[in-house]
Write a structure and sequence with these properties.
about 200 residues; alpha+beta; four-stranded mixed sheet; three-stranded antiparallel sheet; about 45% helix; about 15% strand; elongated
């Protein structure tokens, strides 16, 4: 029998899954609740499903206090969801910055569309505030070529990540950054779309 690794149970919905499929939370020394996205922080952990509803439910039903046997600071539902969004987006942003430093990024609508004709990028980031026409043009070309994309960050943030002015689209070339980027964007998407 093949073992799939350790399993944990969501403190809200009571679903049991592999540890890597769940969100881990730990307490700081002053009993502040801390999301542990990499599951590497020391201390006892409490787990929820990778879903907004389970994090909110656990906070609203005081499941973190129960799991950690006492008062827990920073366990309000809206604050936790916002903190998780920020941390997940920061992880994605750091990979984009690293890819840029490694010379694996192209940006700008014309450049990216041209790249998709001859050499397919591994992943695209499309600004959340891109114009509808240009956004549709980029998405159509990406879908035609089988290139995954994510609509995340605004033009200013996308440009800042690669040390440039505003950018509406950023392409990451095929290589070592693609796997982690796809994994982190899938986590973010699954968290807010609840696996749909």
């Amino acid at each position: 029998m093949v073992e799939n690794g350790p399993e944990r149970t969501c403190i809200f919905c009571r679903t049991t899954r592999g540890k890597q499929e769940l969100l881990r939370f730990v307490l700081s020394p002053d009993r502040l609740l801390v999301p542990d996205l990499l599951a590497k922080l020391p201390g006892r952990g409490a787990y929820t499903c990778m879903a907004v509803s389970c994090v909110k439910g656990a906070a609203e039903k005081k499941q973190f206090s129960r799991a950690f046997k006492g008062e827990v600071k920073g366990a309000d539902a809206a604050g936790l969801v916002n903190q998780l969004r920020i941390r997940m987006e920061e992880r994605i942003a750091s990979y984009v910055s690293l890819a840029n430093k490694a010379g694996k990024v192209s940006s700008g609508t014309d450049m990216v569309l041209e790249r998709m004709k001859d050499r397919l990028p591994g992943f695209l980031f499309i600004a959340s505030d891109i114009s509808a026409d240009i956004g549709q043009k980029v998405k159509t070309q990406a879908e035609r070529n089988g290139v995954e994309y994510c609509t995340l960050f605004d033009k200013e943030k996308l440009g800042a990540l690669i040390g440039k002015e505003m950018r509406v689209v950023v392409a990451i070339q095929v290589g070592g950054f693609i796997g982690p980027l796809k994994q982190e964007t899938a986590k973010l998407r699954n968290f807010f779309e609840e696996g749909r």
